[in-house]
């Protein structure tokens, strides 16, 4: 049946104009996705996290062993394998590169943003859905963690699927197959979260469900969880790997469940301590440019099921990790999707006049970046790498100027009641400016990467030439070499693997000397103080690379 309206038949030019206008959001979205993905490979991987997780994926691809994770050739059971699998698959399909190494968190970030837009649309209508999509894409902490290779973007996407699936399954308008489908999607999200980072993938949703039920004194939602089918699906997705890795490695269960979960949370075993307020600065900066609206998000009615659940989710994540003895900035990332959904609801309800006042916070923050750029010459003069510092400060200055210009445009649009367009301008501007800042940081990143170092020692790329790492270890070195290095008098996070496979490393410099002397060709990486130590042992090495911190020697 033809549904063309009479008005369109009478005025075909108006119909074509509406079609062209509707095309612009689609083209803008595609351009944003292209920018998001393209910038994944524009910077070198940096140590430690990016090199670690890139090498874990590469090792799986090279060995064909998708059960037992190995880091630099040694057993490594700190985390489950979902991200390693994703990284190995992207490297198999696209080749080994910085881009393919970061593709998993990049896609995870896009999935998170897409879920937020869809969920807000289904819960509160199309306008709120668009606002959630824009706010998610423009939130600094979601963007940054999606462009950095760690486990947290993948965990966040999995938990967002669990959160959104649960909310959509409990929505009043969800009926029959839709309600059941979204509840099972939530169980899939739980399984993916556990396979991404362990039991925290169950703890966060489970604790929030309990706390929210107690707060509302309502346990009816527990009957809608599809427990039998959901638990069966969860088990099918998670149990096979845990069973297989435990069967092959009898010590896995104790190390993974006790050491990596209980001991890490309850004690400073990994030297990642911080005060109770540790995460507050990361929340305030990470929620830019929407930080000024945070007080709005606390105004939740207990009778509103979805809003209450989102608030409990965000607060629990913040408090849980604040109480932990092991803290890293990215740990609170799973609270940001809940905040974005609350924000989208508030923005849809707020007046343009109220929103214009909230521009002050991001404007002040980016004005600080502009002030830093204006002081560039004084700051560069104090830096040990003036060229790198100048490039970084120029990037900050460009990003700050662009955002301040975009803020003026957004303010002008708000004065004309163009709320959605103003939010879109802010979100796009913040995204572009954050990406500019990340790219400007690449000079400093290269100082914590082996990307350029490996190019200076081509003989190390020969698999027949042994490469040693003396008293130190750069996590990116094996990835850029495309193979493991032999650790010498270095333990760090390798204690578990070294104890079980002692033949894969050299415990002392004294034991390294005869191996070096016996090899016709060899390469060794170290930090500067170690060079004097090996010279004291009688070696007269040939230096092939050095900078302020690192030295590489080679023979012949």
From TrEMBL:
Q: Which UniProt keywords apply?
A: Cell membrane, Glycosyltransferase, Membrane, Transferase, Transmembrane, Transmembrane helix
**Membrane-topology annotation of the record:** Multi-pass membrane protein
Residue ranges annotated for the ArnT-like N-terminal domain, each copy included: 32-253
Compartment annotation: Cell membrane
Query: Locate the Aminoarabinose transferase C-terminal domain: which residues?
Result: 453-555
According to the record, the signal peptide region is none
Please tell me whether the keyword Membrane is annotated for this protein. yes
> Where is the major localization of this protein?
membrane
Annotated transmembrane regions: 21-41, 124-144, 151-170, 182-215, 227-245, 276-298, 305-322, 328-344, 356-376, 396-414, 421-440
- The entry's protein name is Glycosyltransferase family 39 protein
